[in-house]
User: Fold this.
Amino acid sequence: MRRVVAGIGGAALALSGLFALPAGADSGNTDAFTTKTAYEPQGNLNSYERLPSSFRPVFTENVSRHGARTLSDSDDGDALLALWNAAKSEGALTGVGRQLGPDVQSLLAANAHDGYGLLTQEGRDEMRTTAQRMVRRLPSLFADAATGSAPKIDVVASSQQRTVDSANEFAAGLKTAKPGLPVTPTRTDDTLLYFHKSNVEYNDYVDNDPRVAAAEKAATDQPRTHAVARSVLERSFSKKFVDEVVAGKHAEFKDEIAAADAVYALDQVTADLAGEGRWHFDRYLTPDEAAWFGYLDDVTSFYENGPAFAGSDITYKMAGGLLDDLFAQLDAKRAGTTTRDAELRFTHAEEIFPLATLLGLPGSTQQQPESTLYTYANNPFRGARVAPMAANIQWDLYSDGHTYLVRMLYTEKQTAFKPSCTPVHRGSYFYSLDELERCYGRA
Assistant:
């Protein structure tokens, strides 16, 4: 999700308040690892609103991000290791820095063992335990789904191995909670669940819109970022050696920001590798420094995947097909044209972000004027809260035989639909299906 930008041309932004740590990016901040944040369920069985009498669950569906995964590739680690070897040969390592090389090697070995871009043990556990809690929340629905030999649970994922594996782990978790439950083999559908890769208009925006380049450059190429990057590197390397990195004299990185960002990227993935070993990358950068690089990561997510610029829907309108499918499944159940009890979908952060914006989920809707850079102080958007690892949006359908009600869970927390939707009564999390279709223009 991260693209550190330095030296990119583009329209200048009128900016303010850029030289202090963003609000919310303080010491010990839980948002620092952004979309690499390990999953934590936000609700529990005792926290949910009581279901109206005479209603029972008849269907459930979700859209889930894949579980925690390894690094996409070894590039950051390889470059950092080459830089470390150069410093070692020059006698330019600090006491702390002497351990950096071995730590990088160990982390790369763990990633290679699991396979780059694939689920970690943490990710597999996230999927299985989330599935088990789903069964506990809806015991009568899954009891019905276990009757007969024909599967009533449909499972679909993007074609990427980590999403297919996530779907399979989730299905295994369902079967652990409900032995004998028949589940369809995982099928793949990239049009539905990997649409950001094939959308020509969206990719042209990300690659060529000067506003995106200007905003990312404004955040990255500022005194605060240069100062934080130098601080990170001087913990491991001598000042003279860091001066050389700043001047671009080491081919591994174009400047100190790129080098420090590599340290952050390795620290960022350690939370997702908790089951593979004990990691100590926090010795190479402080919580405040990690939080600053986390903010830069969120800048990229905000403009490339999140609400982005005021008046533009380019980053989220492409999720319309996925939203249509959510409603189509509910309509089919109400009409009696499907025997399914559940429709389970597994996808990526790049799909969770736009769907969250379309739905109006918390922290996903506030756009920024072109003249004002997104910061933690002026916008609630946080990658760690909108699309952490295994983030999920679940819709449960209930009926009394005549009326159909829907409740949404977001990372397992009951969550209101957008403000223009009216619940069955004030403060309720239950909405009539007719009202939701009216509210989202799907009537």
